DUF6265 family protein (Maribacter chungangensis), 163 residues
Amino acid sequence: MKCFLIFLLVSVTTLTAQNTLSLPEGETSPPATIAQIEWMTGHWKGKAFGGITEEIWSPPAAGTMMFVFRLISDNEIGFYELGHVRELAGSLIFELKHFGADLKGWEEKDEVQRFKFIKAEENRLYFEGFTFERISDQEINIYGLIGNEDGSAEEMKFNYKRT
């Protein structure tokens, strides 16, 4: 089950992803600042993985925005994520770790899932395998490549409404 839920970086050339991108090999992330994703600040709820998903994003501070995620299915916690988008080397990076309902980490102690910034558009920020989309002040979408146990991946849309 863990392997199914962990977000993986996968070559987009083998996928039919419509909303996620991959940084071309050898290219570096373009300039960006945390102010470009400040609109994510707030408490968001949606439905995915057969349950209720929730994300809480802090306001920007010290060049970072932290977030927590939880999945609730059948009135039980499925898993948590803790992470942030932070400024790094004049650009942005999206980093996260997964935890079970008992707060035991899925990744190794020093392992962090990292997703490099690719580009910004008027209402979207693209990271490798993830896209943050602002629909309005009250609604967002997050698109992510979700890894399957067989090594394949599929793009999943998480629609959230502000609470």
User: Anything to note?
Assistant: Residues 1-15 have pLDDT under 50 and may be disordered.
